[in-house]
Amino acid sequence: QVQLVESGGGLVQPGGSLRLSCAASESIFSIYTMGWYRQAPGKQRELVAAITSGGSTNYADSVKGRFTISRDNAKNTVYLQMNSLKPEDTAAYYCNADPEVWGHADYWGQGTQVTVSS
């Protein structure tokens, strides 16, 4: 059972930056696409950014140019660098591990809250 533990959320003013971290309990990046999702109150969970095992990345249109997903294989950790934050970025952010190989489970972290407010 893989555990994903997020950290780095908090309260930040508009225009500010935060870096979220997602630490995996095992080395899984070679067979998993790692993603960051977010869910605001009353809204559906949405994909923010993802990075495949091969290192390809994709982003939601709403965060392109402001957010960057990266990973450190040695630390089994995925990051989401968030710059130029806006109030509409306020949400609970979740880390996800989506298997690229059949027969492996999908995993979610517990979430970390990001609040952008003055």
Distinctive features:
118 residues, mainly beta, seven-stranded mixed β-sheet, four-stranded antiparallel β-sheet, 11 strands, globular
Word description of this protein:
The protein is mainly beta and 118 residues long. The chain contains no helices and eleven strands. Strands 2, 4, 5, 6, 9, 10 and 11 form a seven-stranded mixed β-sheet that branches. Strands 1-3-8-7 form a four-stranded antiparallel β-sheet, with no helix packed on it. β5 and β6 form a beta hairpin. It is globular, with a radius of gyration of 14 Å.
Set out the fold topology.
Elements: E1 4-7, E2 10-12, E3 18-24, E4 32-39, E5 46-51, E6 57-59, E7 67-72, E8 77-82, E9 91-99, E10 107-108, E11 112-116
Parallel strand pairs: 2-11
Antiparallel strand pairs: 1-3, 3-8, 4-5, 4-9, 5-6, 7-8, 9-10, 9-11
Summarize the structure in short.
The chain has 118 residues and is an all-beta fold. The chain contains no helices and 11 strands. The relative contact order is 0.32.
Range of strand content: over 45%
Query: In terms of per-residue confidence, which ranges show pLDDT below 50 for 5 or more consecutive residues?
Result: none
Largest sheet: 7 strands, mixed
Q: Count of DSSP E strands?
A: 11
| Mean pLDDT across residues | 96
Q: Give the termini separation.
A: 40 Å
Order of H and E elements: EEEEEEEEEEE
The helicity comes to: under 10%
Computed CA radius of gyration, to the nearest angstrom: 14 Å
Oligomerization status of the protein chains: single chain
Shape: globular
Structure class: mainly beta
Number of helical elements: 0
